Input
Amino acid sequence: MSDSAALVPDERKRKRMVSNRESARRSRMKKQQHLEELIGEVARLKSENAQAEMHVNVLTEQYGKVEAENAVLRAEVAQLAERLKSTNMYLSLFEVVSGVKMDVEEIPDPYLRPWLPVCTAQINQCNC
Output
């Protein structure tokens, strides 16, 4: 009986060792699977980051073009404002010299105030 009593603790010890090995194997597999998921996520995030960077570069280039175009337009507005000021000065001088009133109606320009709704009747008056 002492032999069979000694086998029981040895059997338990062996079963525990087998169970521990199986648990360790499952743990390693789970860890490997988690690592592979993280590697996949890193690849996906790198791809998203590259796409976002390309989008930012495209938008930056477009912004630069629009900014340059706006600078040209601002220069044109300043030049036209100066010409208008000069023309108004000549008209005022002409009024003083000739005595004829020179009222020039303002021509509405929807492009100068794009935030305002466009009235087609005003545009039609401009084209007459």
In short: Residues 6 and 87 are 119 Å apart (CA to CA). The mean pLDDT is 84.
